[in-house]
Amino acid sequence: MISLVRDIPPTPQTRQPILAFRQVSKNFKSVQALDQVDFDIYPREIVAVVGDNAAGKSVLAKTIAGVYRPESGIVYWDGEPIEIPNPSAAQERGIATVFQELALCDNMSIVQNLFLGRELSGPVTIADNEMEEIARTIFRELGAKIPPVRTLVANLSAGQRQITAIARAMLGSPRIVVMDEPTSSLSVTQTAEVLNLIEQLRDLGYGVMFISHTLSDVQAVADRIVVMRHGRVSGESLMSEVTYEDIIAAITGVPNELTRATKERSPLAPPTALTEINAALPLPTRLTPRPQALARHSGTEHSR
């Protein structure tokens, strides 16, 4: 029977990142989309990536997913240098990506969308019952509220479509889940459901990359935040140690504690343990709790 639980020790303080980018660059002719980017994804952690339009967030996600190949830099997987030449290689490695374009077929059921292109076969015909049971197990372990798996996707809400796309990504037994704007255009209730699902993925042991323009959503669920600006990482911190104002300043390019104290690594240095990374993270003078989290879960706030 399928299980989404990752076999990961409960103490993250001594682990290496699953995936690490070191000095990774990507350009499109004269446009420098990624400029010497250092970026890590750890197990059992939600790392939020924020920034203005054209900051490089989606290009970073697509480079992780194998859609784009970097011109320079090194990619590490469990501390070993690797290449991700295409999306198939990324999936085989254990990287699942949910893009803004969900690519679901409205005229097919939930379970048909989950297994589209990788249907399970019985001795004579497609194993419908087995696929339906696997689909139910995935939704149950994710704690997702979804109609019966034979329901047509055309009849789903925007939030249920997003949850279906996330569930589809889990079929390949990934270790990392990359989500590009999963809460955009969702209602308050639907946003809360998707954010709860993202937290559930972290609790199950996955490393989650969460790209979003909605800072209240980011503050509600993220453990760590990375700010991008003009293709570079302009700031990085534990989420609990920065304020909303710090994040806005880093996005807009105003110097502050977040941008000044961003960790530095030697060029192409291999990834270090999480304890060393945390020691180098910024310690802003202004510390605030995360009131958006309480407001979001209670359904009283959702800023755009």
Give a written overview of the molecule.
This protein has 304 residues and is an alpha/beta fold. It has a domain at 16-103 and 174-297: Rossmann fold, CATH 3.40.50.300. Helices cover 32% and strands 21% of the residues. It has eleven helices and ten strands. It has helices at residues 57-64, 87-93, 110-114, 128-142, 158-169, 188-203, 215-221, 244-252, 257-260, 274-280, 291-297, and strands at 19-28, 31-41, 45-51, 72-77, 80-82, 95-98, 176-180, 207-211, 224-229, 232-238. The strands form two sheets. Strands 6-7-8-3-9-10 form a six-stranded mixed β-sheet, with helices on both faces. The chain is globular and about 60 Å long. The protein starts with 18 loop residues before the first strand and ends in a 7-residue tail after the last helix. The model is unreliable at 8-13 and 265-304 (pLDDT under 50).
What would the keywords be for this entry?
single chain; 304 residues; alpha/beta; 4-stranded antiparallel sheet; globular
Q: Can you summarize this structure?
A:
The chain is α/β, with parallel strands linked by helices.
Architecture blueprint of SSEs:
Blueprint: E1 19-28, E2 31-41, E3 45-51, H1 57-64, E4 72-77, E5 80-82, H2 87-93, E6 95-98, H3 110-114, H4 128-142, H5 158-169, E7 176-180, H6 188-203, E8 207-211, H7 215-221, E9 224-229, E10 232-238, H8 244-252, H9 257-260, H10 274-280, H11 291-297
Parallel strand pairs: 3-8, 3-9, 6-7, 7-8
Antiparallel strand pairs: 1-2, 1-4, 4-5, 9-10
